[in-house]
Amino acid sequence: CGGVRYLVIGSLRGVVACHCSQCRRTSGHFVAMTSAPSAAVKLTTSASLTWYRSSSAAERGFCSVCGGNLFWRQIGGDTTSIAAGTLDTPTGIAMEQHICVADKSDYYTLTDELPKHAAW
What we know:
The chain is mainly β. It has 1 helix and 9 strands, in the order E-E-H-E-E-E-E-E-E-E. The longest helix is centred in the first third of the chain and has 7 residues, at 21-27.
């Protein structure tokens, strides 16, 4: 909707697919996130950015107008995870691994050759 816009100054990490129940429930499927140092994420428009503390360890940033799932960050951490689908293309990055696969739902299978980790 354009309510939140950002720039990332510098490199992005490869994409990590998280299959935990919280990520699945906030997105409707697993979440594919890249990340960058928080200082490198520059908000250019943020009037509708809302941060929700989803656990004692982390918070999620979303657009309060359209509900877009945008960011995840650990409380006290210095890295911001960014929903890969929100990046303009070409991104120059690729999926590199799956995490929390022990918590994935039963309606899909993981058939790629990427590393798969039971937990974070």
